[in-house]
Write a structure and sequence with these properties.
alpha/beta; six-stranded mixed sheet; four-stranded antiparallel sheet; 10 helices; 10 strands; disordered C terminus
């Protein structure tokens, strides 16, 4: 099976403030968020990055999505480097994160058309895709409502459909169900499974075990920016539930247990 995404020795450091130092009880002004991280994702596979808050998941996905640059290493997506060919990477991926906000002055209808034009999509295809996605996620009833006036769940669904405007082959989701009510979360999970059935390549970062178990083929468990284990879901959960597997691995590596929230 073809490796469509290759993460190669990523390392990312950040300078923190004195206040952050105090909160983290650290003497260092520089922290390493991602530490020599490598993994690959096969075409048509759903790959899950599992870890507690602060493990380095979001930083990794931001590097993959070309939003920030790694200090070391590279990511290759469908043969294109995020370092050398970021525009080609952006044309091939969709990225969704609850931390990226839509401009609140505009409507979902306007924003969908705007991003479709940026991707140079034929207007006929844009219209067809908009009708399909807006209907599927119930955005059609709110198409002309300014983002500022949408509920949290509807903002998330609008962000989702806009991130998929160009029908990307590789889809990157950072905490796709974070902050959603149970009904909206189910809509998102069902769509992830639909994308999987279509043969899309999907990378999900989350701390929610149930989401991983429902959607993923393989899992990478990240602890303190490093890959602790990478294996198939079936192999990791052959003898015990994923939650127990995670805490066993964390306990062996750290000597204590995290609070997952």
């Amino acid at each position: 099976m073809k490796e469509i995404l290759q993460v190669q020795g990523l390392r990312k450091r950040f300078r923190i403030s004195a206040k952050q130092q105090k909160l983290l009880k650290s003497k260092d002004r520089i922290i390493t968020a991602v530490d020599d991280l490598s993994f690959s994702v096969h075409e048509g596979e759903v790959f899950g990055l599992l870890g507690s808050n602060g493990a380095g998941k979001t930083t990794t996905l931001r590097i993959i999505a070309t939003l920030i640059k790694a200090d070391e290493g590279d990511v290759i997506i469908d043969g294109f480097s995020v370092r050398k060919q970021p525009d080609s990477v952006r044309a091939r991926i969709g990225f969704l994160t609850s931390e990226l906000k839509l401009e609140e002055f505009f409507t979902p209808n306007y924003l969908f058309d705007f991003f479709a034009e940026l991707h140079q999509i034929d207007p006929v295809i844009t219209k067809k895709r908009k009708l399909e996605l807006f209907s599927k996620f119930g955005v059609d009833e709110f198409a002309e409502v300014k983002v500022a006036n949408l509920s949290t769940g509807m903002k998330q669904k609008a962000s989702l459909v806009i991130s998929l405007v160009h029908d990307p082959g590789v889809i990157v989701f950072d905490e796709p169900t974070s902050g959603l009510d149970v009904l909206t979360a189910k809509v998102v999970v069902d769509y992830l499974l639909e994308l999987k059935a279509q043969g899309k390549t999907i990378v999900i970062s989350t701390h929610i075990f149930d989401l991983i178990e429902k959607t993923c083929d393989r899992i990478g468990i990240i602890i303190n920016g490093s890959m602790a284990v990478c294996d198939t879901l079936a192999s990791l959960t052959a003898e015990k539930p994923l939650e127990d597997v995670f805490f066993d691995i964390y306990s062996r590596k750290e000597g204590n247990l995290p609070l997952i929230n």
